[in-house]
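Practice problem: predict the structure.
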Amino acid sequence: MHYNHDYKKIRTELKKWYSIHARSLPWRVKTNIYGTWLSEVILQQTRMNVGVKKWQTIIATFPTVKHLANATEDQVLKAWEGLGYYRRARFLHKAAQKIYNNSSFPESYDEWLKLPGIGTYTAAAISSIIFNEEVAAVDGNVKRVISRLVGLKDPINNSQGSKKINKIAKLLLDKESPGNHNQAMMELGALICKPKNPKCNSCPISKQCTCSNNAELLNKIPATIKPKKIKNIDLIWHLVRYKKYIVTIKTPSEGIWGNLWVFPNTEPSTDSFVKKKTLPPVVHLLTHKRIYAKFYTWEAVNKQELVAYASSINGEVIPIIELKNLAMPRLITKNILPIFTM
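Answer:
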């Protein structure tokens, strides 16, 4: 690996390329601090096509930070439904409340870092794009671009590799236009310097890149430490109902689906409940987790027994028709809710 690149030329070529090829994303068309912050939080571990649609939905539901701050957590989680990693939504809500209570958005990298759910990348992206602060934003796309540019052999997901990438990112930063530069680096990684089959012949900095059109190096770089082994989880949920009513329960704030509504995992008493049928099992994939889910349906002898069962497990009895209004895991909205709407 070497650092003797012509960083000025790289910045110039990158700026020229970005001015032509930047995607017309809704938060870029009308840039403001609220929309930019929301986009950066949504796009953490979310595909762009999904992120754009969800951004538009959330902006329509909560058009200002005041609307977001004054919403209930359930309303925020429901709007977030389908994006996964629900901890991000809870942090977004808490940050909105802090911003609204302070009557202003943070205006610097250091101040953004003080908000819930804001890490170094998000703080750098927002402060550079909105406030033109001279700080490099390094996400997965940028790590890939830089590691290939300089031929970095260190894993990009360990401390040594991260330090080297951050050092180069600072050297590369266009201090006259840090926001556009950061977006250009991310855009280059998303559109050209892809994980597989990068488009080296269309890359504006290919002549400077150590790995350009080198299949052997492109297969090795970026290097990463092997991810965690996938954990298998067995899950059983009981759909306990009486006519048009059903029992739901809220999950603890910490866990896979923090503060979302699910079905009980406690089997009801067979004296007051009749086991109706077993639904087809479902395999549901999450990052580092494979969930094997089974669902059993039960019918209570009367509503009084249903309420007693719900009370015993700290659950709630609601009309089945209201299930669609609750924030629930995709495992349920995709595989179970359609059964009730058939």
